[in-house]
Amino acid sequence: MKTNKTFILVVVLMLLALSSSAGFFGWLYLKRLLPQIEGSTAVFGIADTVQIIRDRWGVTHINAQSGSDACYALGYAVAQDRLFQIELQRRLARGELAEIFGPDLITVDRMVRTLMFRHRGQAYLDNKKIIEPETLQLLDSFLRGINNYIATGPLPVEYKLLRFSPRPFTRLDVVAVMGYMAYSFADGIIRDSLYSILEPFVTVDDLELLFPPYSLDNRTTIMEPAGDSPLNIEQKSGFSPEQDPVKRDYARFYSFIHHSLTRLQQLTPAFTGSNSWVLAPSRSVNGHALLANDPHIGIAQPGVWYEAHIKYPGYENYGYHLPLMPFPLLAHNATKGWAITMLTNDDLDLYRETFHPDNPLEVKFAGKWVGVKSIEETIKVKGGPDESLSIRITPHGPIFSDFITGYQGPPVSISWVYYKLDNPILDVVHQMAKASNIAEFEKAVSRLAAPGLNISYIDSSGNIGWWAAGRIPVRPPHMSGMKIHDGSSGKNEILGYLPFDHNPHLINPKSGLIITSNNLPTHAPLESGGVMTGYFKPSDRAARIYELLTAQEKWSLEGLKKIQTDTRLNEGMKFARKIVKLLDGDIDKFSGHEQRAFNHLSTWDGYMGVDSIGATIFELTIYHILKEVLLVHIGSENFRSYMNLVDYWNFLKRYLDEESLVITGTNPHHTAVTRETIVKRAFASAVTELVEKQGSNDKQWAWGKLHTIEYVHPLGRTKGLDLLFNIGPFPCPGEFPSVNKFASKAGDHQYKVSSLPSTRRLIDCNNPGESWSILPTGNSGNFLSPFYDNQAGMFLENQYRKTLFTTPQISQKVHYRFTLLPMSNYQEVPFPLYQTSTLNNIAAPVTGTTR
């Protein structure tokens, strides 16, 4: 599946302004930019010799004599394989993209700086009371490894194309990136603003239908997987939102946020969901606890995870690292294994602020005028003048709308747990990796404030566990988590945070089974008195996993592969049957194309395979049903935005179930149309669109013809460079409600996959070398590396590879062996590993070698 890169070398030569047009010399030039991954080199910063082994899949295996040397080697290897990726990540998190890309990224930089990842990161680093010295020591060693490679190794071709060189990486770069990753879990900023935008267009009852109470149609929770609950689920959300009496300019606010987030996620993708489940020994064939995990993240090339196996005395983990993080977020060893999914709890609120008419630095809070803090920022812009930005910080948080040029609506602030509480994320992840038993692991998990995570766990003693990690806000009963609140009265303030030991959790349940798929943790009220609120995903994936796992008592990892790659939509099949029933009376009126489409829909088995035609008819029909119902009320742009949220799936369930359900809207001249009429119109529109786009041949209607995936490199959005850096497009199965979740954005209506399983893992920590893994493309970010896309075909064909864990396994699969030698008898020259920042008065100058 690798692109013929020899064929397009001339393009690279032109972009690099080389005088020669010979492909041979261009190839030699590009090969010189690849890192040395065979042989040895002497480096400053390690005490003993360290080997970096890359196996046949490009996975890095490091066996060192100390944690410092191991982390140094990991940093060096990450720089070899992912240097440009971590460059973009730190610039994104610091709001410094315009400095290398130019004016097009100014809006993104303004938004990111307003989110204050750098400022919160620096406050964290300055608070020595919440960071363990060992954690900082290992982080510093990791950074030395990265920076020594920058000083001595060849830089990736992306630096040549953009014509800049990297500065040394710092502690602040790392924690700022962790702040961005926490933000990427927060759905509230999109949903809350859209909810407020729709208020003038529809009634309060309509909003209740468009954003239905979660438990009405999603009975499968983590703690009640069978859907049973002692509670009577209310038919109303419990909130009574009041519409703004004045039409607000929230549409521009939402538009800018959506645009900025889209650009941002093209460079560093957001977490969008995940599946994970754990099985107790009683539920496995071999009597071991088993773990399955596939985190769903936006598409990126290279992928989000750097797979590395790190070992030193007292520590070993086969892990999946965010490339700019020395400790794994997902991992396993011979003692334990763990996984994460998004909790999707509501830990973020938006507030409409009232500023003093005569003083822009005073805001009304709890009925009184209080001062706000102002921070002045300067954004460097490639090819243009510097850009200034003022950030006003209210008692709730920064004014998020200030970054929007020309915004005339009410100032909107963002209040987020990440701003309010200490969040020792480095120690949390490090201690999870070090924990030797379930009690130590739980203690590490308990320190997390944000983002909210489902953390699943198994160990070699047979324990299984799950924790809803992160601090859960306690809100007043009247306070909706779905709208922009009045920030002046003091009536809509967080009351506090639930203690961690009252968060939902399970340890060794009798069922021997724990499933998390971003669904509601429990129907039961929390200690605060209400059911947990959040942006929980429809429970279709969790319900399907539960259905499959309960079909038999005991499972092997081999059997779990079929569950992890399952594409059947049970709810989709129910939708299709209802649609078919509504269409059945008009069969004699169908055109030839409609008759064939109807036959495919009638016989559809619910699977979203690449060859399924019924899947295509289903997807197009439900899109047009919702378009017929909503477009007339909320307009095309709001319809697109709404359809890009998962709430549309819950609304569709109710619409097809309840014949009397109607969106009335606020337009007095609108005439309601029956559901049967709407479904018939929608089906006809779907078939017309399909024939126009794909032709009359049924084979061209297959789901994989529309639903495709392309792994786009950040520079691959430029014509010509796409041929160098991008992988695909390829036909792709699944959709967002399927277990094998290759999701597209329904509102964009292009069926191009936007998020996917970022890895698939099947773990038995009693047999760590018999566990399974796969990445979407490869472990290297260098486009000429053999490990750039060597897993792409396997991934789409639902294949896995063994995780090479034992010494004999690794020895048999060594492809490259690179040795770092401790340097002696060298001339030491100054090379700063840590920049002194205006935010950081702590300078830690360390010397290193020159290039």
UniProtKB/TrEMBL annotation:
CDD domains: Ntn_PGA_like. One of its GO terms (biological process) is antibiotic biosynthetic process. Gene3D superfamilies: 1.10.1400.10, 2.30.120.10, Glutamine Phosphoribosylpyrophosphate, subunit 1, domain 1, Penicillin Amidohydrolase, domain 1. GO terms for molecular function: hydrolase activity, acting on carbon-nitrogen (but not peptide) bonds, in linear amides; metal ion binding. Binds 1 Ca(2+) ion per dimer. The active site is at S274 (nucleophile). Belongs to the peptidase S45 family. This is Penicillin amidase.
